[in-house]
Amino acid sequence: MPLILRSVFAATLLALSLVPVQAEQLGDASKGQNYARSHCAECHAVEQAADDISPDFAAPRFVDVANTPGMTGRALAVWLQTSHPTMPNFIIPETERDNVIAYIMSLKVDPPL
Prior knowledge:
The chain is mainly alpha-helical. Helices cover about 45% and strands about 0% of the residues. It contains five helices and no strands. Helix 2 packs across helix 5 and helix 4 packs across helix 5. The protein is globular and about 40 Å long. It starts with a helix and ends in a 7-residue tail after the last helix.
């Protein structure tokens, strides 16, 4: 391979390695917020506002769920597909579930540097 092509190839690889890689996010956060307001807010604080308090004190605020160390969309999907004694046993259709997960994950705050 000629030197110029190797240099271009190396520069391209370097540039690609500097681009942050993000997993594809499923769902629409805006639709998830609307769903949460109409289906989840009876128990959970679903808004980002610091003064939004869960009507059921045992139900965590969505912003706290999002900022739980290690929380991921996959972990939320598993949680929402598993029956829990403290949560009503209802099934969220897959599209709405993905939207709610996208919304909850949108509440995640980047840790300070």
